Amino acid sequence: MAVVSEYLENAGFRRSVLGALLALGTCIVPHVSAQAAPFEFAPAPQTDLNRVYRVDRATGEVGACQFQLKEGGVGVTVCFPAGEGAGPQAPSDYLLMPSRHEREGGIFRVNVRTGEMSICYVFDDKVVCTPQTK
Questions:
Q1: Alpha carbon distance 87, 25 (integer Å)
Q2: Which residues are registered as beta bridge partners of 41?
Q3: pTM to 2 decimals?
Q4: Which end of the chain has fewer CB atoms at under 10 Å, N or C?
């Protein structure tokens, strides 16, 4: 019986510790989830092209992937690595910005800190980008 009464006396303490831990968790978790993801993805504006571009938000490196039919099979995902101008740039904060031109297969890489931008597109099985300018 003494064990039960001791457990009940300590239950309030355990609840307050648990409440404090939960409150601490709600302070920490939103901070972690609010951090920027390392990559951003955006589709090519061209309406008949199933290509998605990827940019590393910190380095500006751009790549792309698209679906390709495979005869007699399910199909394959074909990816294009960074080529000329699409590799890592000066560390900053980069985003992808599609134009509204429905026949445009490329996408803009924008540096939101400096305002510079370049157009990136697939050429010879690699993603290439024009020099950044503003």
A1: 38
A2: 54
A3: 0.71
A4: N
